Amino acid sequence: MAAGATVAAATLLIGGTRYGWAAAAWALLTGALAAFLTGRDTPAASTHPNKEQPMSERQVGKVLAAVGAPLTLAGVAMYFLPGPGFPVLVIGLALLVTGLVMTAAGRR
Known about the structure:
The protein has 108 residues and is mainly alpha-helical. It has one domain. It contains 4 helices and no strands. The protein is globular. The protein starts with a helix and ends with a helix.
């Protein structure tokens, strides 16, 4: 929940003055997505039937952060260059923050 609130607040602060109510809608959407991705489910008692090991939460967090960082930089660059700067920035920040939260939670 904290990750979702952080992503929503960051989205609203970045785009609120420029886009108004549209930024609030994006903030709600990205916050809900971040909260869903970082939510904790209790693991089932049975293990996976196949021999493949599932990815750990820390590995998933690293992948999300690795994808989110360049997207965030591209979104910032698109404020000055032609392109859809705000949506790319919002998606990049959501992935980056979610990845960092998942990586930090995996260390505990």
